[in-house]
Amino acid sequence: MRVPRRAGRRTNLALLVLLPVAFATGWLAFGTGTLWPARVVVAAHAVAGLAIVALVPWKRLIVWRGLTRPGGAPVKVYGVALGVLVLLSLAAGILHAYTGPHDYFGLTAMQIHVGAAVAAVPFFVAHLVARRQRARPADLSRRNALRLSALLGASLAGYAALEGLSRLAGWPGGRRRATGSYETGTDDPAAMPETSWLFDEVPDLDPAGYAVTVRTPAGTRDVGYPELAAGGDEVRATIDCTGGWYAAQTWRGTRLDRLLGGVPASGVVVVTSVTGYQRRFPAAEAPALWLATHAAGRPLDAAHGAPARLVAPGRRGFWWVKWVTSVRPSPRPAWWQSPFPL
After folding, report:
1. Residue 294 phi/psi, 5° resolution?
2. In this predicted model, what pLDDT tens digit does every residue of 107-144 receive, in sequence order?
3. Backbone phi and psi for residue 281, each to the nearest 5 degrees, phi listed first
4. What is the 3-state secondary structure (H, E, C) of 108-130?
5. How far, in Å, CA of 199 to CA of 76, rounded?
6. Mean pLDDT score of the chain, rounded to an integer?
7. Does residue 308 contact residue 213 with C-beta atoms inside 8 Å?
8. What is the per-residue DSSP string for 155-177?
9. Does position 342 have pLDDT exceeding 70, yes or no?
10. CB of 327 within 8 A of CB of 271?
11. Residue 151 and which of 111, 217, 239, 326 are 20 to 30 A apart at CA?
12. What 8-state DSSP symbol labels residue 202?
């Protein structure tokens, strides 16, 4: 079966829109902590992904036509690598969404989904440059817009059907959170996965010599572990990790505004780990942030942030800084940081 050139161009244009949308909504879903924004963003990510799946049969014929042409070996390599990585990311995303948090070849489906998507970016750019095409007025025609709308509408209907089926059939996906995460370790901190951001390793910290440096305009002081562990501030909060799991715990420790002697006037609080990892928060959130030493009535272990970690309700897990070494105000705004720590 041959694909008419116009149909092939429409398919490529649709993918040119859908691939960046899928990538962008995927990263946005990582940064969305509260449930309703997360639900909308995750749905948009899923719809874009299903729309790409729907175009696979058409794109397969276009790829085959390109591969049978003589010459252009580098371009073919870019295209094949891009196609393989996109399909791998799509398959892993669907597996995570509906079959649960399983490992494949030592990696979780979420890790494969994200890793393949990131690896596909340079091949997408290289393929785009190698196959550069001039825009045409017809590309923005009403007919093409209606076709894309119909594709997205069908994908939305397919997503709704899958969500309904997963609940009716009792699939694991029917029990996942709006963020796409699965419950693991609620009220049992030891059962929570041992995760850290990128290349951070679990440090060996002795509570006897551990202290958090708290800096305020009034001065600097070191708060030792005994004082932190004696804190009686408790909060019921859910940590929702971008690795695809969540757990609700009752965390105990000390609120940041108590450590800081009130809400800082600078407008920003910086929380830093012994690994150098840090996150910036609006000062107004200090009363809603905790430096926790215990979870579910038990002291934290090293892998989960001991001696003390940040608890940031409503934010994804990468905001919950582990192994905190300092808390300080900063004159720079809260947005003066990478959306995802590098």
Report:
1. -130, 155
2. 999 999 999 999 999 999 988 887 777 777 777 788 88
3. -130, 145
4. EHHHHHHHHHHHHHHHHHHHHHH
5. 34
6. 90
7. no
8. HHHHHHHHHHHHHHTT-GGGG--
9. no
10. yes
11. 111
12. -
